[in-house]
Structures are given as structure tokens and as C-alpha cells.
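Progress against Task 2.4 (sequence-to-structure conversion) is shown through the following example record, which the project officer requested during the mid-term review.
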Amino acid sequence: MSRGEGDLLLGEWACLGIIAAAPTHGFAIAQRLRPEGDLGRVWSLSRALTYRAIDQLAARGLVAPVATEAGVAGGQRTVLAATADGRARLRAWLAEPVAHLRDLRSELLLKLLLSAENGVATRQLLEGQRQVVQQAVQQAAVSLAEPGADDVVAMWRDEASQAALRFVDRALARR
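C-alpha cells generated for the chain above:
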């Protein structure tokens, strides 16, 4: 499946969100996206994939070089900043609820962390997400009520959707 011109991969959104918060260089982004990094605990990327994501963002005009600085081990590091288009696209993405329940653990958590880092309020996102999750809860209940619904997938979806709803409600209560 090919992606459209406007579609970004989750790793690209993560890099854009980091860069939009404050100009930075690829090595610092890669450090944050390591499995032990503050964002890597939600969505991790290897250093090579981080640099590839940054290249994609630059090719699409969403980030641009603004300076260079000396690297720790010599050489120069290119400092990148989000363009106006990059910041606008990020804000729009951060406001969109996650469509599929299976993506909440990665995409919703990443959106919440990047929203906090970029000073974006999350109430609208969470209220929209609550509606999406509430539909999943209702669909799971209907599946379980069907005759012969001794289906482990239906049971899993029921439990997962209820847990997701509790999480979103808890996150809303904190806002």
C-alpha cells in the first residue's frame, strides 16, 4: 500500500513533533527515540530510521535547516526547525482522534506526549477519542451478545475497549 503525498508515518510524526517543539539536530532526536528515550518508550526508531524520517520531512518541506553546530565527536550537526507548514500539519494531526483501538497504545500516547511538549491543549483530542472508543465499546458489546459469542477475539475487544475508555476518561479528568 503506497501512502499519499500528505501521509506521514508515525515515526515521521514523532520527529516532526520533536523538531516543532524546539530546533534540534538528528542525533538528539535519535537519542529521544531510542527504546530508553522519553519518547522511545512509546514509539522507538533506530538511528538510521530517524535520519530517514528527517530526510522525508525535509523533502516534503515540513522541516528546514536553520543552523549548524559542532558535534561532540567532531564534524558539524545540522539544526532543523519546523516550517510553518510543518507546524500547521502537526497541530492538525495532534487534534485528530486515533481511528482504531489497536493504535491507541502507540499513536494516542505519542500524540499526548507531543501535545504537551508543543503546548497544545488535548481536551478536544480526548473528547473526540472518547467518542471513537465509546463506539468500540458498543460494537464489542453487540458482538458478545450474539448467539454463540464465546469468541476470544470478541472478549478481547470488549476488555480492550473498556480499558481504553477508562484511560481516556482518566486522561480527560486530569485536564
